[in-house]
Structure formats: structure tokens, C-alpha cells
Design brief:
Chain lengths: 163, 428
């Protein structure tokens, strides 16, 4: 991973904070959803829609109408409900206006996927009181706490004596 | 969950082993099953397409094996791990996941003889060329790198030469040339050295040795740091579309998780050198006491090496823990708790005296293994390294009079008693 400049007023959320964010999330809007099954956004959408997870998932892309048999909405404003999380699969330079949209509609979390980073977007969303996660994959983080990552041989960092 | 950083011994007991959610079983169950029932056809399709995590078939993954993999990853400071049916299988997975026909690797010449044979025989037949260099010659590694080189390979502690790898310097050379550093750390285990902390990218172990620790089971593991840039263009099999998975690209889809995801779902899938759940379970038992056992092994090894060093019947002792060793300084840097418990020595009287010595031992076992709780002894030139040419033996510092010992956890006095009697016989 490339070195990241620190962002005043925001710290990358710890494992415990990421688990809390995912636990408190009921609905997720995937911005930049793709119909191409080789793209990460399609991959993650499939996972979040599967029995592994339990979220209401909304797909957002002005250039698509149907992905994975589901309707695709042109923008965050067009969704039937306010999603708890806005999960972005776009280029890093496109993140600030999406962060503004996430704030405008009243989402609780702004999440930028693996490889994405924007100081400006983090500033916008965190100043408005949103939880901000960047350069992380919702699928991997969900799987870290739900056991999938463990089954794939990865270190989850989870140590517990509870069932 | 808390963000507390758990210590090595705690992770050796707990990492990868949550209580079973269905039964509450505290010990990791042995999931002795080949396959796993799908929820429905969508679930099966999602699993096969890697779109969700879960079990399909034990060639690809098994819950008992997963517990061992996560524990190894945790102890080695790795992102994750993929277990294999032997240490050899782990090495084969690590190297051939990156190198293919027409490619090249640079390797230490001091490796376990079986690994040298894998590289110079089987990998050569597959079209992968290896340049062997002295493991202490960092510049030699750099000079041997070519455009088609896919990785550098060495052992933390050379078998049997005892040469200690300058891991940080080798990692710098590897990364400056855009290739990963792979290290076989079998002789040190994560209890004594964690190569990823020094910059290594891939760490392989024969779990058969100290990790299992009791000489019962064969297995191996590939750990990976998750920090290497596989997207540079040098590794097309990490960045090009994968036809067997709907044209996904490992690096694009899985980022830092891509290497191990590929090793498991592409490479282990095709090769099938899978760790058995029973063996994974035995390795989990071994790991629980790894730190204590390694401390005991090292304490006995230091004492045995010093005793042999001071004995006039012994011509030479090569243990990096001895100040007289050329590898002592490097050992202090990378293995501050001690350079393991496997080392070599030679008797006055050469090969014949060595043979009489080995045959005179009463308690110490003459066999081809290391890392058992019991003390083991061997004559490498006629056994583990016998398939090597004279030139390869010389390059690996394997001499005809060399005796290799793997010091166990018996009472020190009893190990010394047995060695003393056998030395006396060899000189009678």
C-alpha cells in the first residue's frame, strides 16, 4: 500500500470500530456498481446480497439499469430509503462530490473501497459526523468478523472465548 | 471486540480458534470431511465463483486446516496462510504460483538437499531455471537477477550449513528489483524469527518439524505479508484475466489478499497438495507450546554445542550460537533468542569415525528428520543430501565428515551421556 498523508481530524477506524460500523449498518448503497462480473463492485455486491451477509443493498450507477437482476438507481437521491452506508467504487478523484451527496442524504457512513483514498472526501464526511472508512473492502471487513476470512486462511486478529 | 495487541503465547493458544458456534467446543474440532453441503444452488454458484467465503471441498479448505492457517499467519505476522501436505509441497506452491516455464528464480545454494533437487530437477523440467548462490553473498543474489526472475529464495538458517540469511539486506535487493523475497523458516519457526518483520514477503515452513514438534505428521504452510506490489507488470498471472473465474484479475479484485487467494483457489486447486485435517489438528497442538519448546530446544542446543566444542574428540562444531561461528553476528541480529537446535559437527577420524559414532548411540535416534521433541542425528552426505552432485555438496558446505544433530528436549545430562559414550566408541 502507498504511504498515506495523515488527515487532520480523522483516524482510520480500528478493527473494533469497523466491526461496530458494520454491525450498525442495515442498508448499503454501492456507488459505481458494475454489471461486469470481473469487477470488484460486482463481486462485492454479490457477496453483500448473498446469505453471508444481511443487508439491504442498493446499486447506484447512472449508466446501468439492471445488475444481478436488481434495479440500478441513477443517484443516491433516487434511492427508496436513506442507506446507512455509502460504499464507493469510483476513482479517488471522484470521491469528494460523492461524500457531499452522502452527507446531503443523511447517510451514517462513507466507505471508500480498497485502493481508494481522498483527503477531501474524508474531511467532508467526517466533519459532517459520518463514520469514514477508506482503502478497505466491505466484503473483506464483513468476512473478517463474520468468519469468512478465517475460513480462507487469513489472520482476522479476532481472539475470543465466546461462541 | 477490543483492539488489544495479544502476545505471542496467547496467539499460539487462541489465534484461529474461536469456540465452535454450534456446539461450544473449546478445542478446535477435527472436521474429518471431504465436502460441505450447500445452502442452495445460488450458494453453490457464489462459492465456486469466489463471490462468498465458505467451504466447498477439503482440497481447497477445511475448518480445522483454516484454524491452523490463521494461527500460523498470526504468529508469523502474515496477512494469511495456505497450508500444504508437506514442507516440500509448500515450497512448490510458493515458487510455482509465481514462476512458470521460461521464468527464473535465484536461490541459496545451502538449502536442504531435497529442495535443491526440486529446483534443479523438477522445476528445471517444467522450464523454471534456478541460479544458486552463496546465501551469505547478498551481492551475488543481486547480480543473478534477470528480467524473467520471479523471486529470491533462501532459508533463515541453512540446512545443514547453519548460514544465517541477512533477511533485511536480501529484502532490499529483492524489492529494488521488483521481486519478492521468499524464505524457508523451518529451522527457526515464528518463535525465534519472523522474517516478515525484516521485509520478507513469503515465508514457508515445514510444519513437520518444530511446529508439530513431535515427529508425528507431515505438513507445510505458505505465509504471505500482503504488502508486495503484484501490479507492477512483472507478474502477469496476478494481473491478467483469469478465465476459470469469469475473467476476474487477482490483483484488481483482491488487492493485498490477491496472492494467497490465488495460491489457494488457482494453484492448490489444481495441484491438490492439501493438508489433512488430522495433521492440522496435531500442528495446532504443537503450536500451543511452540514458544516453550523452542526455548527448551535452544537451551539444550547451546549446551550441547558448547560441550562438543570443548571436546578434543570433536574436530569442529558449526552452530551459529557459538561465538566461534562465522554466522554468530548475523544470528544475534535475526535470532536473538538463539539460532534453533539443528547444527553440525565433525569428528576426528572423519567419515568412518562418524559412522561408528552414529551407530553407537543408545537413546539419540538415527533418522532423517529434525525438529522432533526427541534428539535426532544424521550423516547428511549419505542421506538427506546424497542426491546432490559433489559440486552441489561443496556449494552447500556439506562435508563427508559432517554429522547433523537436532537437539531435543530430553534431560541435558542424558543427551551428553549418550554423545559421550558414542564418541568414546568412535575413538576406541
Amino acid at each position: 500500500m502507498p504511504e498515506r498523508e495523515p488527515i487532520p481530524g480523522w483516524e482510520p477506524p480500528s478493527a473494533g470500530e469497523r466491526k461496530r460500523i458494520l454491525d450498525e449498518t442495515r442498508s448499503i448503497a454501492i456507488v459505481g456498481a458494475s454489471s461486469n462480473p470481473a469487477r470488484a463492485s460486482n463481486f462485492v455486491a454479490t457477496y453483500l446480497l448473498s446469505s453471508s451477509a444481511d443487508y439491504a443493498v442498493y446499486l447506484v450507477n447512472p449508466r446501468e439499469t439492471e445488475i444481478l437482476g436488481r434495479p440500478v438507481y441513477p443517484s443516491l437521491e433516487d434511492l427508496p430509503e436513506v442507506p446507512d452506508m455509502v460504499d464507493v467504487f469510483r476513482r479517488s478523484e471522484d470521491l469528494p462530490p460523492i461524500a457531499q451527496d452522502a452527507v446531503a442524504i443523511g447517510s451514517k457512513t462513507f466507505w471508500a473501497q480498497l485502493g481508494l483514498w481522498s483527503t477531501e472526501a474524508a474531511r467532508i464526511a467526517s466533519h459532517a459526523g459520518l463514520d469514514v472508512v477508506m482503502d478497505r473492502c466491505t466484503k473483506i471487513e464483513h468476512a473478517r468478523f463474520a468468519g469468512g476470512l478465517h475460513l480462507a486462511g487469513f489472520d482476522t486478529g479476532v481472539i475470543t472465548s465466546r461462541r | 471486540m477490543t483492539d488489544h495487541t495479544w502476545g505471542f503465547r496467547t496467539r499460539a493458544l487462541h489465534a484461529g480458534a474461536r469456540p465452535d458456534p454450534t456446539t461450544g467446543a473449546r478445542a478446535v474440532p477435527i472436521f474429518q470431511t471431504s465436502s460441505y453441503v450447500f445452502e442452495d444452488t445460488d450458494d453453490a454458484a457464489d462459492l465456486f465463483a469466489l463471490q462468498k467465503y465458505g467451504m466447498i471441498y477439503s482440497r481447497l479448505g477445511n475448518p480445522t486446516v483454516s484454524a491452523f492457517e490463521e494461527r500460523m499467519a498470526s504468529l508469523d505476522g502474515a496477512l494469511g496462510a495456505v497450508a500444504a501436505s508437506s514442507g516440500h509441497a509448500a515450497e512448490f506452491l510458493a515458487v510455482t504460483s509465481l514462476a512458470e516455464a521460461g521464468d527464473h528464480i535465484v536461490s541459496s545454494s545451502h538449502l536442504y538437499g531435497g529442495t535443491i533437487t526440486m529446483f534443479s530437477n523438477t522445476l528445471a523440467r517444467f522450464g523454471i531455471e534456478t541460479t544458486f548462490v552463496d546465501p551469505t553473498d547478498v551481492d551475488g543474489f543481486a547480480a543473478a537477477i534477470r528480467p524473467e526472475t520471479k523471486l529470491l529464495f533462501t532459508e533463515t538458517i541453512g540446512n545443514p550449513s547453519g548460514a544465517i540469511a541477512d533477511i533485511a539486506a536480501l529484502a532490499d535487493v529483492a524489492h529494488a528489483n521488483g521481486v519478492p523475497l521468499a524464505i524457508d523458516s523451518t529451522f527457526s519457526t515464528p518463535a525465534l524469527c519472523r522474517p516478515i518483520e525484516w521485509g520478507a514477503d513469503i515465508v514457508v515452513h515445514s510444519a513437520t518439524k518444530f511446529i508439530g514438534g513431535h515427529g508425528t505428521s507431515l505438513g507445510g504452510v505458505v505465509c504471505e505479508a500482503g504488502t508486495f506490489d503484484w501490479g507492477s507488470g512483472r507478474f502477469p498471472n496476478m494481473t491478467e484475466p483469469v478465465p476459470t473465474y469469469n475473467d476476474l484479475r487477482w490483483w484488481d479484485n483482491f488487492g493485498e489478499y490477491s496472492y494467497l487467494t490465488k495460491v489457494r483457489n488457482d494453484h492448490l486447486r489444481d495441484i491438490g497438495s492439501t493438508l489433512a485435517p488430522m495433521h492440522a489438528w496435531l500442528f495446532l497442538q504443537g503450536l500451543e507450546t511452540l514458544d516453550f519448546r523452542m526455548a527448551g530446544h535452544v537451551a539444550n542446543a547451546r549446551a550441547v554445542a558448547a560441550w562438543l566444542h570443548d571436546d578434543s574428540r570433536v574436530a569442529w562444531v558449526n552452530y551459529a550460537g557459538l561465538p566461534s561461528s562465522p554466522h554468530h553476528e548475523m544470528s544475534n541480529k535475526y535470532l536473538p533468542a538463539g539460532p534453533g537446535a539443528v547444527f553440525t559437527f565433525g569428528l576426528d577420524g572423519g567419515r568412518d569415525a562418524g559412522a561408528t559414532f552414529i551407530e553407537s548411540l543408545e537413546m539419540i535416534s538415527h533418522l532423517a528428520n529434525v525438529g522432533d521433541a526427541k534428539t535426532l542425528i544424521l550423516h547428511p552426505a549419505s542421506t538427506t543430501h546424497s542426491q546432490l552432485s559433489d559440486e552441489q555438496m561443496a556449494a552447500g558446505s556439506v562435508t563427508p565428515d559432517m554429522v547433523r544433530i537436532s537437539v531435543g528436549l530430553e534431560d541435558l545430562d542424558d543427551i551428553l551421556y549418550d554423545l559421550d559414550r558414542a564418541l568414546e566408541n568412535a575413538h576406541a
